[in-house]
Amino acid sequence: MTSNPEGISISNDIADLLITDDRWSIEKFKTYYESSTFLSILFIVFTLVLVVRYYLKNNNSS
User: Fold this and answer.
1) Bridge-partner residues for 37, per DSSP?
2) Which residue ranges run through the membrane (predicted)?
3) Which tens digits make up the pLDDT trace of 20-57?
4) How far is residue 27's CA from residue 56's CA, in Å, rounded to a whole number?
5) How far is CA 33 from CA 24, 29, 46, 60, 61, in A?
6) Phi, psi of 9 (to 5 degrees)
7) Full-model pTM
């Protein structure tokens, strides 16, 4: 677990491998958080679009 004097630590080994920087700040954490939230929403929307397209394609062919 990586600790920081600002009171922030990474408790997930995979996240620790991805971030890897011991000198990260609250601003850096916020940037990573906002980026991952945006990507998660983007993937959810993309998946919904694919599901709707699949449903419409299979519904129209029958």
Assistant:
1) none
2) 37-56
3) 766 777 888 888 899 999 999 999 999 999 999 999 99
4) 43
5) 13, 6, 20, 41, 42
6) -140, 155
7) 0.61
**Domain limits, the chain:** 25-62
41, two tokens = 């929403």
For tokens 């993309």, what's the residue?
46
Q: Which residue has the tokens 């890897």?
A: 20
The full 3-state SS of 7-61, as one line of letters, equals CCEECCHHHHHHHCCCCCCHHHHHHHHHHHHHHHHHHHHHHHHHHHHHHHHHHHC
What are the tokens at 57?
């394609």
Lookup result for tokens 């394609």: 57
Give strand pairing partners of 3.
9
First to last CA, the chain: 55
